[in-house]
Specification:
This protein folds into four domains: about 130 residues, 2-Layer Sandwich (Methyltransferase, Cobalt-precorrin-4 Transmethylase, Domain 2), CATH 3.30.950; about 60 residues, no CATH class; about 170 residues, Heat Shock Protein 90; about 55 residues, Arc Repressor Mutant, subunit A. Helix content is about 35%, strand content about 20%. The chain is flat.
Length: about 450
C-alpha cells in the first residue's frame, strides 16, 4: 500500500515539537524495535487512539528513516495488529531534517489489540501500561471480545427455577417446557449452573450472588452563590430482577423529580419536568448494557437542574459518544433478548432507545442529553435547560451565518410547519429584528 509522502515546513515541525507526550501522542526514534513499537500500537488502540511520530529522538531531534522502505517492518507491524480503517500512515520529509519521519494515526480499536509478544497494553497518560488478570478481562469485556453475562455462577438451579419471577414469566409467556429446559435451550446454563444472565433475568434476588447488580439513587441539592451541589439524605438502593429493577428505579426517581420545586417567572413554584421516555430509555440502556463484571452499581444522581445516569464499563467495541445514536453493539445480547420476551418489555424497540430519549427532549424543547466516558464508566447527563425560543434561534442563526430562509429556519428550530415559520418571520420583521429580501421561493431574511 502506498502512503502519502508530505513535505513539511518549519511551522509543522514546530507544532509537533510543542506537543507534550500524553494520552494521545508519543514520539519514538526511528531505531525503535518492532516489539517495542507493537506495545505502543496496542496501548493506543486499546485506549482512545492517538498519534505516533516515529523518527524523532527524545530530545526532539528529527532524524527519520533513510528511505521509506526502511520503515516497512514497522508498517507491517501496524498492518498485522490493526484492522483496516483503524489506522492511517504518512511520511513527513523536510529541508530541515534528514530522512523520512513516519506519522501513524491510530483509532480506538473495536477489539483488543496485542503486542508481538501477545500481551495487551493500554495508554495511561504518557505511558504504555501492560494489562493482565482482571484488568485484561475488563478490557476484553469493554471491547466485546468476551461477555460476563455468560459466566457461570455456583448458585442453586432449583431456587432459580422455582422463583416467583421464573414461574410468573413461564405462565405469562405461555411456555410449555420446564424452566430448566427453557434455560438450557436459551444458553443460560453451563454444566448445570445458571449464568449471570439467568440470575439477572429470573432470580427473585440476583443481588444475593451479584451484589453490585442494583441501582443507587442520589438526590443532590444546589445552594449558595457558588452553585455547589450537596448530597441530600441517604442514597437509595434498588434491587431485584432486571425487569422489576428498571421499573422500581424509574418510579423512585420520578417521585424524587416530582418533589423538586422550580421557580418560573409569572407562574411561581412549579414542578420540574423531564420527558418520561427520556429517563426510561436512558435508565433501561444503562441497566441492559452495563458491564456486570465491574463491581459497581448503576448510579442515578438527581440534581436541581439535571439528572446523571452512570453505567459501569466503557462503551463497547466501536461505540463512541459521537456515534452511539447510529451504531449498534449489544454488550449483553442474552440479557437484551431475554428481557424482550417479558410482557411489555422495557426495551420494546430494540436499538432505538437512545434515539427515542433524544427525540423526547427535542419535543419539549429541552437541550439534548450528552454522553461521556469517565474512567471505566459511561455517564449520560439529562439537562433541564430550555432551548432558545424559535425566534431567538432564528436571529442567532442569522447573526452567525448572515441570512436565513424558511427551509433553513425549520431545520434550526426543529419546527416542520412552513406557516408557523412564516409567522415568526413576520413577527421578527415587525419588531425590526430582521429584514425581508427577495420574493417567492427566493425569499430570505437578514439583519437590517
Amino acid at each position: 500500500m502506498m502512503f502519502d509522502n508530505k513535505k513539511v515546513d518549519s511551522g509543522t515541525i514546530g507544532y509537533f515539537d510543542t506537543q507534550q507526550e500524553n494520552h494521545f501522542f508519543d514520539r519514538k526514534s526511528a531505531r525503535i524495535a518492532v516489539a517495542k513499537l507493537s506495545q505502543s500500537i496496542s496501548a493506543f488502540a486499546n485506549a482512545d487512539g492517538g498519534e505516533l511520530l516515529i523518527g524523532v529522538e527524545d530530545d526532539k531531534t528529527w532524524r527519520g528513516f533513510a528511505s521509506v522502505e526502511d520503515a516497512n517492518p514497522l508498517l507491517d507491524t501496524a498492518f498485522d495488529r490493526l484492522k483496516s480503517g483503524y489506522f492511517d500512515a504518512e511520511f513527513l520529509n523536510s529541508d530541515h531534517f534528514p530522512g523520512f519521519v513516519l506519522h501513524l494515526s491510530i483509532e480506538r480499536s473495536p477489539s483488543v489489540v496485542y503486542s508481538t509478544s501477545d500481551e495487551a497494553y493500554i495508554r495511561n497518560n504518557a505511558q504504555n501500561k501492560k494489562v493482565t488478570g482482571e484488568r485484561l478481562d475488563s478490557l476484553r469485556r469493554s471491547k466485546g471480545d468476551i461477555t460476563y453475562e455468560s459466566h457461570a455462577i455456583p448458585a442453586s438451579l432449583e431456587d432459580l427455577t422455582n422463583s416467583e419471577t421464573m414461574i410468573h414469566f413461564m405462565l405469562e409467556s405461555d411456555r410449555i417446557s420446564e424452566p430448566s429446559e427453557f434455560l438450557r435451550k436459551q444458553g443460560l446454563l453451563i454444566d448445570g449452573n445458571p449464568t449471570v444472565a439467568a440470575l439477572l433475568l429470573y432470580s427473585d434476588h440476583p443481588q444475593g450472588q451479584l451484589p453490585h447488580a442494583g441501582i443507587k439513587i442520589y438526590r443532590y441539592e444546589t445552594s449558595g452563590e457558588a452553585r455547589r451541589d450537596f448530597l441530600s439524605g441517604v442514597p437509595l438502593t434498588i434491587e431485584g430482577p432486571i425487569y422489576t429493577l428498571i421499573r422500581r428505579a424509574e418510579e423512585t426517581a420520578q417521585k424524587i423529580i416530582d418533589s423538586i420545586p422550580r421557580l418560573d417567572q409569572g407562574s411561581g413554584l412549579t414542578k420540574i419536568e423531564y420527558p418520561v421516555e427520556t429517563l426510561h430509555e436512558i435508565l433501561t440502556n444503562a441497566v441492559l448494557h452495563r458491564d456486570y463484571g465491574t463491581r459497581d452499581y448503576v448510579h442515578i444522581k438527581i440534581f436541581d437542574n439535571r439528572i446523571e445516569v452512570e453505567s459501569p464499563g466503557r462503551l463497547p467495541a466501536n461505540i463512541t459518544p459521537q456515534n452511539i445514536l447510529d451504531e449498534r453493539f449489544a454488550r449483553n445480547p442474552l440479557i437484551q433478548r431475554g428481557i424482550n420476551r417479558f410482557p411489555d418489555p422495557p426495551n420494546m424497540d430494540i436499538g432505538e432507545g437512545l434515539n427515542t430519549a433524544f427525540q423526547a427532549m427535542e419535543r419539549l424543547r429541552l437541550n439534548l442529553p450528552y454522553i461521556n466516558e469517565s474512567g471505566d464508566h459511561v455517564r449520560v447527563t439529562i439537562p433541564h435547560e430550555p432551548l432558545a425560543s424559535p425566534q431567538e434561534a432564528i436571529v442567532n442563526y442569522v447573526r452567525e451565518s448572515g441570512r436565513i430562509n424558511n427551509s433553513t429556519a425549520r431545520t434550526v428550530t426543529k419546527i416542520e410547519q412552513e406557516r408557523t415559520i412564516r409567522r415568526y418571520f413576520a413577527e421578527l420583521v415587525d419588531a425590526g429584528e430582521l429584514a425581508q429580501r427577495g420574493s417567492g421561493r427566493g425569499t430570505y431574511y437578514e439583519i437590517p
